[in-house]
Amino acid sequence: MDYAANLAMTLPELVLAVGAIALMLVAAWGGPASTKAVSWVSVAVLGGALIALTGPASAGGDAFYGLYRADAFAAFAKVLIYIGASVAILMAPDFFRRTAGADLRPEYPVLILLSACGMGMMVSAGDLLTLYVGLELQSLAAYVLASFMRQDTRSAEAGLKYFVLGALASGILLYGISLVYGFTGSTMFDEIAGAYAAAPLTGSGRSLGLLFGLVFVFAGLAFKISAVPFHMWTPDVYEGAPTPVTAFFASAPKVAAIALAVRVAIEAMGPAEVQWRQIVIFASLASILLGAVAAIGQQNVKRLLAYSSINNVGFALIGLAAGTPEGVASVMTYMTIYLAMTLGSFLVVLQMRDADGQPIETIDSLAGLSRTRPGLAAALAIFMFSLAGIPPLFGFYAKFAVFYAAVQAGLFPLAVVGVVFSVIGAYYYLRLVKTMYFDEPTGTFGAGDKLEGGLIAVAAVFVSPLGYLAIPALSAWTLAAANSLF
Amino acid sequence: MSFPILSLMLAVPAVAAIACLFLSAPAARVTALAATLIDLALGVVLWTSFDVGGAQWQFVEYAPLFGRFGWALGIDGYALLLIVLSVFLMPICIGASWQAIERRVPEYMAAFLFTEVLMIGTFAAQDLFLFYIFFEAGLIPMFLIIGIWGGANRIYASYKFFLYTLLGSLLMFIAMLYMSITAGTTSIPVLLNYDFPASVQTWLWLAFFASFAVKMPMWPVHTWLPDAHVQAPTAGSVILAGVLLKLGGYGFLRFSLPMFPEASASLVWLVFGLSAVAVIYTSLVALVQSDMKKLIAYSSVAHMAIVTIGLFAFNAQGIEGAMMVMLGHGLVSGALFLCVGVIYDRLHTREISRYGGLAINMPRYAILFLLFTMASIGLPGTSNFVGELLSLMGTYQVSTTIALLCTTGIILGAGYMLYLYRRVVFGEIKSEEVRQMSDLTPRELWLLVPIAAAVLWMGVYPESFLAPMRKDTQILLARIDRAKPAGDSLPTKGTGIVPAAHAETSAHGSAH
What we know:
The structure holds 2 protein chains of 2 kinds.
Chain A: H1 3-9, H2 11-30, H3 35-52, E1 61-63, E2 68-70, H4 72-90, H5 92-98, H6 107-123, H7 128-146, H8 153-184, H9 189-198, H10 208-224, H11 233-240, H12 243-250, H13 252-268, H14 273-296, H15 301-322, H16 325-350, H17 369-372, H18 374-387, H19 394-408, H20 412-437, H21 450-463, H22 471-483
Antiparallel strand pairs in A: 1-2
Helix pairs in contact in A: 2-3, 2-6, 3-4, 3-6, 4-6, 4-12, 4-13, 4-16, 4-22, 6-7, 6-13, 7-8, 8-9, 8-10, 8-11, 10-13, 10-14, 11-12, 11-15, 12-16, 13-15, 13-16, 14-15, 14-20, 15-16, 15-19, 15-20, 16-18, 16-19, 16-21, 16-22, 18-20, 18-21
Chain B: H1 5-21, H2 25-49, E1 58-66, E2 69-75, H3 77-100, H4 105-124, H5 128-137, H6 139-149, H7 154-183, H8 188-191, H9 198-215, H10 224-231, H11 234-244, H12 246-259, H13 261-266, H14 268-287, H15 292-311, H16 316-347, H17 358-361, H18 363-377, H19 383-398, H20 400-425, H21 432-435, H22 442-460, H23 463-480, H24 499-511
Antiparallel strand pairs in B: 1-2
Helix pairs in contact in B: 1-2, 1-4, 2-3, 2-4, 3-4, 3-11, 3-16, 3-22, 3-23, 4-5, 4-6, 5-7, 6-7, 7-9, 7-10, 9-12, 10-15, 11-16, 12-15, 14-15, 14-20, 15-16, 15-19, 15-20, 16-18, 16-19, 16-22, 16-23, 18-20, 18-22, 19-20, 19-22
């Protein structure tokens, strides 16, 4: 395969990388005045990367001797990642303009572009080293983004906390990678899968090295998707980071990390399915339970959404536990709908500002929102009922898909325990609805931004029952993506 | 494909609900009333054009819109009657809220119209998951109705209502996933004739039972109902008692019995046991209530227990009787909640002890209230008599003990209803504020008289209501007959023929 064909397959990452570097130069020379232009060009670059996906990048096969995979699965995940990244750029200017003591700098969109490039590498990885490089590129950009409001100590704390714990997780992951490499003799997914298939994994003669490697790799990945018991950083980082950055963390990197976990589980460690399934099931149920129970006492809406994201990752993992093409397709379906619900919720959180435009984050401040801002309250109620998985909202279909896959794979206890825990989760989503609709208004929020209002409306319509009309297209697409892994 | 009347019945209130959100309060009231009346007219068209004794499924619509499941609608006799009940009660609910609801009227009307969409959808759905979506989605508007427009303790009641019913339904959801994967279809008519292995049936039955028993509600998971009723606004109570409680019974009839006949038969003892406890226990609890709405709520639980025993009697009387109780109870308890609403609007209390002597200054009210009280007791000539008699007759064939225990419910029912009526309507007027209360307004008459007429119609000529479901009952019985439990009230076998009589008969025989 010639070099040009390899480059054509990696075109989306090339577009993002070249775009980010060029914009970084613009930012260096243009200074803060160039912020607006850089933001819009960044969105255009993401759009360009999206267009680049239509070429060989979505169906080219292996590039660079198997280091990089350009398949339908990666393409699907990248579409979601680019959408999440674009929205995170679009929602930032208004927030930073209004918030005292914080100003948007042109580095913000550039960092998001670099992060998106890293996420693209993650989901396209065909080798543990590509995986690690992509992960680090994404994470390093994210650490800086978390502490973007330099005057705010909470933001600085979030960045530092994220960095320290992220470094620890990377260490665990690398340790796992080195064990896997040591015992399989390769970092290529295909060869690792061959080694797992050949080695004994059960009984007294089982290969402990391979099993330990698997456990460490999954522990590292669990940190990145913030699954219990590696979730501790999430509430603090989500609360401390500027809201647009939090929305970004909860959307694009989450999709990338889940997609990466799916790819490693299926492609590299597929033969050890029985072994990793135990880990996935535990992480899944623990995340659902903890995400639900810990959210009940929260007073800060961003913290609440952090626990909600932990809870949702748990549900997505149910699909992975099935380990079938339908299961993988259901994970991607889940993440698609999750992306709309999460971005929508955070866009509503962005509208929570007092009369001076300063952000408010307490749940109590939402009291009576249905009287003061009926449209906004209705949108948030739609997102909350949808996150709770109540039909007829589209969030129900997300849960439908993963539970369908689990039942199809015969995992009845997992499905039953999962739905029972989801009732606990419904309680705190209802609490937000109750605050908005049942309580008396205490104050009103400042007027919102038109662009953000439009994005909220788009997300709300997608999550509303109208979203069901997208099911045939979505199932065909996710199934095609999933089949490219098997 | 014929004219999609069911989709139209869903579309009219749905469009009106969205329109209401953008209208002023008076315009929203009119829009809601117009939409519900159009749906009532469509319901009448549906009933008159329903071919009694014709195809099992009529007005069938199908569009494979959602990938794994489709937009499949269609009704049989049971669904027809329950849809007609829903569209009949809906305009009455809107009328009952005309003045009682002053705050946030557009949202209130929208919530009611959405409830109507979801109820009709639940009864008309022919796809397992479409049914589930409609069934479960009903929680959202009801949660808002109780929570926003309810009484003092509304938030507790709304949470309890939501979480209780959600937990039950989710177990059913997993069972539905299993069924659709195993049978390879989500079509309810196909699944009705699919035989699951007996061991699996028990688990599936229990999962469905978890959902329907809560909706029904059966003892001991009925505790959400009194709270929800007491806190809900009048129209909310009407729709809750009138239609939402029927979802449980409809579920048993549509899913549990025909899809899992063996499991239904082997678990009859569970249903009967819980129902017998419910009838006696909740009737006694109703007897000591001091809150009118709570009293009627507990009486609902008792009546619903008569429904469940009838359904699981495995014979035509029982099943048709259960359906008649559902319809009758929908009308009567709805009307009783309206009666409570009428005096609540005047005095703003539901405490029975505050009233008394209403027959003196509210004679028209006293007459209508008396009619509904008698209907609730099951007096011959009213709707509930037909249903309760049939249901208990059916039960008697299976278990005399349970029939005996449940019949005490009728006596106890007479006790608590007459006791209620005596305290509220008879006696001397106790306070000046009660004396000030005016009799029914024309609007209130328009709400109560149609229900009174329907109650008498059902009591005097039940054939109109029995005819549409007769064929469906035959189909259902043909399906479940193989699992029918042995009854304990069959005629006992004689000990042999007396020789003398025998000789006489043989003499007769030879003479011929």
